[in-house]
Specification:
20 strands, Glycosyltransferase, single chain, 2 domains, five-stranded antiparallel sheet, Beta-galactosidase, Chain A, domain 5, alpha+beta, nine-stranded antiparallel sheet
Length: about 625
């Protein structure tokens, strides 16, 4: 019998249309974890792979992260049969004399992250987690939380984690220093850059953490606490929703961009949190549709191991794309999507009919993250200015490609010494030895004028690249002006599409053009009059580099450029409908006028994410 990886997905076959469907999905996703609870129920160890933190913290992560969904389920009246395990696990995990003790926090520590889930659950379900504990066990838990909050939390969304612990301490009547809470709330406000957008800390980085962390935690706070911060969180969420909805495609897919994509349907956490906080930032039918369509998009993907445990990866198990802070329990931040289970079946989130996504008619400019969202049927494509990314593994791929697609995701490179074999989808790569390569890592300048993005970047200190990205739906145009003191080899890629077995895909490559036709998808790239000839190629990308498809094809243009100034220009197109080869493909956009592009650069505005941290919105 042939094994179907998608059949192991606990969401498979669930219509995910009603509150009951979502309740069943939560339990179906949780149940595969039961065999991995330790004897004392304080730890959940799912495999032998390591993260940068210690094993005890990883085991706590596996234990705590499901609480983001289980606690709302309990608050909404759901019947979960294993609360006794969680109460026992908390008692043992916070007992220094127990063999399953979680370990003491003695500095910045992964345990701080997971204690936020515990604090949240203690607020929503104290009758399940606090009341069953005896006096000594309560004292141990209180001491553990109080000790952990003394240490400095990371200068990003982590500051919310101590706030959540503090809310729990308040609700449980445990005395603590509230000035620490106020200080972190003030510092979190310092990450705000306007229009509903934050940075995730004092770095030039804006990604899904703004939705499933900064706003997610802020909206929970706004439900649990009433103060000026809560008021601001509600107002900012309304503004953010107007932009963030453009990150989602008609079928529920979202834009894969940035780090921590192994959290998967946590990307619906923002829409889920609006329901929890009772904020109609968009009509309820739209919010419901955005949330549930996203969950449904995941239901047929091979995202779980054979036992139903969520894997590290995105569209399939893939350690290559992971971060060094991903343990086997990390994917269970996906349970943030289940926050609507806390609201009753009479809430308008549940009683409203789903409303389809409002498709774009024209490009939409998102100045704060530095993106231009393009109207593409069956997809969402973001032209991206590129962001600060050197702290992350594969930061260039996750933050600095020229374009990102919900349907075609993006690829990470698997060998820094393989210029000849690199995927380079939506990137321009340079090599000075034919072996090693450089791509955009960070920008010296970023400007946005009308709907055109400009960036200036240097793959080496003595090489300067000026790049313009121009929407021309369903195409987009890229123009690069390169100044180099020595000859270089270049490779520029279009979008990656799935590759079939037995070489059954149709591949076409010639001077100045390359395109591939797969089972369902077309991807192509055309030169638009570069000052050097470029040769088309269909790259069979290394396996397991793309986030959605394990084997892919990438159309590329390659050329050797001389010293001095070179202009490279191309148009890129990808579409699900393979008939595009006889329609749009035969009508590429024209090469933009360089003088006009220079004029746009001169009048452009700085992208908010690229402004100096701490500057005024």
């Amino acid at each position: 019998m042939t094994y179907d990886p998608a059949s192991a997905n606990p969401l498979a076959g669930n219509p995910l249309e009603t509150r009951g469907d979502m309740q069943r999905a939560l339990l179906d996703l949780f149940d595969p974890l039961l065999p991995y609870f330790s004897e004392g129920n304080a730890r959940v160890r799912l495999d032998a792979a390591a993260a940068h933190f210690d094993r005890a913290a990883a085991d706590l992560e596996g234990f705590a992260r499901p609480l983001w969904g289980l606690a709302p389920f309990a608050a909404g009246g759901g019947n979960f049969a294993h609360w006794d395990r969680y109460a026992e696990g908390i008692a043992n995990g916070t007992d220094p004399g127990h063999p399953e003790y979680w370990g003491q926090v003695n500095g910045r520590d992964q345990r701080m992250v997971e204690l936020a889930a515990l604090g949240f659950a203690l607020v929503l379900a104290p009758e399940k987690l606090w009341e069953p504990l005896n006096g000594r066990e309560r004292d141990n838990l209180a001491s553990y939380l109080l000790h952990a909050r003394k240490f400095d939390y990371a200068d990003n969304n982590w500051k919310f984690f101590r706030v959540f612990v503090d809310i729990a301490l308040d609700r449980l009547g445990i005395e603590h220093d509230r000035s620490l809470t106020k200080a972190y709330l003030t510092e979190l406000d310092g990450f705000y850059i306007g229009g509903g957008w934050y940075r995730d800390g004092n770095v030039r980085r804006v990604d899904h953490y703004i939705a499933f962390a900064m706003h997610f935690y802020g909206l929970i706070y706004a439900r649990l606490v009433e103060d000026d911060h809560a008021k601001r969180y509600r107002e900012r969420a309304v503004a953010f929703a107007q932009d963030f909805r453009h990150w989602f495609a008609e079928d529920g897919a979202t834009l894969p961009f940035g780090r921590s994509l192994t959290y998967r349907f946590a990307c619906a956490g923002f829409w889920a949190a609006l329901a929890f906080a009772d904020i109609e930032a968009l009509p309820w039918g739209e919010i419901k549709g955005l949330c549930l369509r996203h969950l449904r998009w995941w239901a047929d993907k091979p995202i779980a191991d054979r036992d139903g445990v969520l894997s590290i990866g995105y569209g399939y198990p893939n350690l290559l794309m992971s971060e060094n802070y991903n343990s086997a329990g990390s994917p269970y931040w996906a349970f943030k999507a289940f926050l609507p289970l806390a609201v009753s079946e009479n809430h308008p989130f549940w009683t409203s009919s789903e409303v389809p996504l409002r498709r774009l008619a024209e490009p939409v400019v998102l100045r704060h993250p530095g993106m231009v969202m393009m109207p593409v049927k069956g997809d969402v494509v973001a032209l991206s200015s590129g962001q600060e990314n050197r702290q992350m593994r594969f930061g260039s791929e996750k933050y600095a490609k020229f374009a990102y697609s919900a349907r075609y995701a993006f690829s990470v490179e698997s060998d820094e010494r393989a210029f000849a074999g690199g995927a380079f989808d939506s990137m321009l790569a340079f090599s000075d030895d034919g072996v090693h390569y450089r791509v955009r890592e960070a920008n010296e300048e970023v400007r946005l004028a009308d709907n055109v993005l400009f960036s200036k970047w240097s793959p080496w200190p003595d090489v300067v690249v000026e790049t313009w990205l121009v929407p021309a739906s369903p195409w987009h145009v890229r123009v690069h002006r390169i100044a180099t003191p020595r000859p270089l080899e270049t490779a520029e890629g279009g979008f990656a599409i799935p590759r079939r077995d037995f070489e059954t895909d149709a591949l076409t490559a010639a001077e100045g053009t390359a395109h591939a036709i797969g089972a369902e998808d077309f991807s192509g790239i055309r030169d638009l009059g570069s000052t050097v000839p470029r040769e088309g190629r269909i790259q069979k990308a290394p396996p397991n580099t793309n986030l959605i498809a394990a084997k892919t094809l990438v159309p590329q243009l390659r050329a050797k450029i001389p010293s001095g100034e070179t202009i490279l220009a191309c148009a890129v197109l990808a579409a699900r409908n393979t008939s595009v080869v006889t329609e749009d493909w035969s009508n590429p956009p024209a090469m933009p006028d360089m003088a006009a592009l220079d004029a746009l650069r001169a009048k452009g505005l700085t992208v908010s994410a690229m402004q100096a941290p701490g500057s005024a919105p």
